[in-house]
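Lecture 7, part 2: worked example. A protein chain together with zinc ion.
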Amino acid sequence: MSWFKRKIDGITTKSKEKKEIPEGLWYKCPECKNVVTSDEHADTNWVCAKCGYHEKIGSREYFSILFDENEFTEIASNLTSGDPLSFKDTKSYKDRIKTTITKTGLKDAMRVARGKINGLDAVVACMDFAFIGGSMGSVVGAKFAAGVDDAIKNKCAFICISNQVEHV
Ligand SMILES: [Zn+2]
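Predicted complex, written out as structure tokens:
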């Protein structure tokens, strides 16, 4: 399947055909409407090269920006939320967690990892807004504490990225 299909007698592409472009290959800046490939957008650290708009990013992107060669070891990565209160709003908490894990590929609202930043060891704890709005539960607390303990043990810096508010 070709990405662009043009009529022989014209240079315009019908909007119906534009939708055939696989999603995720292009990024359109919500501020200035500039369109670039997703790879180009990643190359500028998810900041619009035209107007400077900062896209909301998560731990995956922050780790790739901060850690040398994107190499790091995750800390307490196997922790997942329980449901001690059997909480339920419009959906049960258990179901909400399960759906979010599947949708985001994340296990909770924070990831913690140790790697090198410009050759120096550092532990980075990063909130993920994509995980129920960066919902802070017991796992976030446990991971944060495990990251601090690891930084003390390894005598290195501890950085916390407590993103993210909506753009105003
Ligand atoms: Zn822009």
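Residues 34 and 50 are 7 Å apart (CA to CA). The beta strands are 26-28, 35-37, 72-75, 110-117, 120-127, 157-161. Keep this in mind for problem set question 3.
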